Every structure is written in C-alpha cells, then in structure tokens.
Amino acid sequence: MKLSIGIVGLPNVGxxxxxxALTQNDITIANYPFATIDPNIGVVAxxxxxxxxxxxxxxxxxxxxxxxxxxxxxxxxxxxxxxxGLGNKFLAHIRETQAIAMVVRCFxxxxxxxxxxxxxxxxxxxxxNTELIFKDLDTVEKxxxxxEAEARSGDKKAQALLxxxxxxxxxxxxxxxASQVKIPAESVSELGLLTxxxxxxxxxxxxxxxxxxxxxxxxxxxxxxVQIDLSQPQPDLSGLITAAYQILGLIxxxxxxxxxxxxxxxxxxxxxxxxxxxxxxxxxxxFIRAEVISYPRLIDAGGWSQAKAKGWLRLEGKEYVIEDxxxxxxxxx
Length: 333
Prior knowledge:
This protein has helices at 15-23, 49-58, 87-94, 121-151, 156-173, 212-221, 238-248, 272-279, 281-285, 295-301, 304-310, and strands spanning 3-8, 40-45, 62-64, 67-72, 99-105, 198-204, 224-228, 250-256, 260-267, 287-294, 314-316, 326-332. It is an alpha/beta fold. The protein folds into two domains: 3-248, Rossmann fold (3-Layer(aba) Sandwich), CATH 3.40.50.300; 269-332, Roll (Ubiquitin-like (UB roll)). A six-stranded mixed β-sheet has the order 2-4-1-5-6-7, sandwiched between helices.
C-alpha cells in the first residue's frame, strides 16, 4: 500500500525547504513564487526503530522500510482554482495523493517576501482551502449536469448520486470542505475531490511564532497539526509521518527472515488476507492462514525459531484483524 502526501501552501512558506529536509534531494529553492515548476516527487523511508531489532535477531541481509511519497506542489495563490499563477496545473497534481500537508508560515522575516504582504496564518489557511473548495465546486457542478440527465431515467442509483452532488454543491458553495459533509464518501470517490482528502497543517516557525489562538482553532476543528521549525539545519520531521499515519488510519506490520526484514503499510482494521495482498496481489486470493506474533513477543523470544519452540506463534485465519507491530508469515496456495 502506497502512502502519498501532497505538500501545498502559499509561495515562500517553506514547502520546498520541507521537501528537501524530508528527502535530502537537491531541488531548486528560491525566494520567489513558483520556483517549483513541476511537482517534485520524493520517496521517504518511514522511521521505525523496530526494523533494526528485527533485522538483528533474524540476521537479515536487507532491511526495507515502509515508504511515503511526498509531492512538492508549486505555491498556490488567490485565484489558483481559475488559473491564477500556476493554479489549475498544480491543483490537478494533488488528486494523485491520499493526504494534503499544508505548510503555514508562522515565522516573521522581512527578507522573505510574503505574497499577501504580512504574516497571518489563519488567513493563509483560508486562502488555500478556499481555492481547493472552488476547484471541487467546479468538479461537482460539471458532474451534476450529467447526473441530472441520468436521474431523469428513473434509475435509483443515479437519483441517489444526484442528491449527493446537490448536497455537496450547497456545502461547498457555503465554504465547507467536502470532508465536513455527511455523505457516503465512496459514492463520489471517482471525482477525486481535493477537500475530501485528509489534511495536516504544518506550522512553520519557532514555538514563540505560533499563537495559542491558532492552535486552539485547529484543535476545535479537529484538524491534525504539527509544529516544525524549518529554519533549523536538521528540523525534527518525525511528527509529520506519525500524524499522516494517524489521520489516515494506517498501521505497520512486518515480515522478517534471513533474506530481508520489511515493514508494510496497511489500513487499521484490515484482515489477514488483505495484509497478504499487500505483500503480493496473488496472496490475498490464495490465502490459507498466517503465522503471527507481536513484535514485543518476538523480541522477548529472541527470534522466530525460539518463539516457535516456546509455542508463541499463533495460526490465524481469514477473519484475523492485523494489529500494529504484528510479525507475520503468510501461508498461501
């Protein structure tokens, strides 16, 4: 399962700096809008100390962490949804991601130009969300025209979709994010709505730059946020990936042996056959059972063979729900 996050924000708020810190890639960073001409895509290893211990006890030749793809999207400005700046082109790139990380400038620095001529994190958040809403509204209204014609045939499924789209149109027009609207999300998944994606707000600045009111507002909205000081030579970025896993409801499980120790990403609540399918698509259909042990239990045993000798391995069937930190061996036909 691939986890992908789009990094968005106004120009000159620290998006490309964050991307470089995450990926250590040598990309263009400049003190002017639109320094990022195409979306930069970087693959970042998910930090997980458990991998090193599993590699050690299994004497694995390779260690393969789970990964996150980060898309560095060019700076958005007012009117991006209608083509201002490099608007529509880059809004389209966000559709490829599962979540949005919105970098919000909290730091004051007269040497770094702010396109809105002043530091106001709350205003900047509203600008970006408004552009995302406008883009979604355009998408919904285009689909609405087709849905109206389909619903006239009397098809109940088409009529239900029309009602959903009308609800969305009304909510988006009132400034709501699609994620705040009570609708069956899967019914409009084909539209790739930007405001239906999970969001993480990255507050870029020192602790003293970030107002308590801003944090309170985000908490009241139930919005995930992390504070990162990107002016530091080596900013602490661990909270970002942790927050991404939390808001998307993801967990990690492991496979380990002499050849490799590997972390895999899966949705919380997934069952053993789905985990098998993450390892290899054929394994889900051919799943028979899984040998499972929790990470702490395996470490206590000192290895797979020792755990087996102690009778600590469990045989689980198709209804078993994978837990974070499970170490598994899939048996398949």
